[in-house]
Amino acid sequence: MPHVLIIHEVAAYPAWKQIFDQAAEIRKRAGEISYQLLRYDADANNIVHFSAWTSLDHARRFFESAELVEIRKQAGVKAPEFIYLHEIERGVL
């Protein structure tokens, strides 16, 4: 399954989270299937967004779209790093 790992700093987590939640339907239409949000242990404004997608092409189109660039500005996102991944194995111990 295709995944995207995004690491970014935000100006203020509560403001970012509100905009993130408002974009749920846009993300779903673009092909996001599921997501996890994590934060750095010592800094609540450093966010990791890990998500599963229908395809990496859909994810790239979405994350590189002008609409999302504007949404990131509104949300106070600073220099996001996008890592596009193919799952090769999953397990539970």
Automatic annotation (TrEMBL):
Keyword Oxidoreductase set for record: yes
Pfam families reported for this sequence: ABM
Keyword Protein biosynthesis: no
Domain named ABM: residues: 15-72
UniProt keywords, alphabetically: Monooxygenase, Oxidoreductase
GO MF annotations in UniProt: monooxygenase activity
InterPro entries named among the record's database cross-references: ABM_dom (IPR007138), Dimeric_a/b-barrel (IPR011008)
Name the UniProt record assigns to this protein: Antibiotic biosynthesis monooxygenase
Phylogenetic lineage: Bacteria, Pseudomonadati, Pseudomonadota, Gammaproteobacteria, Methylococcales
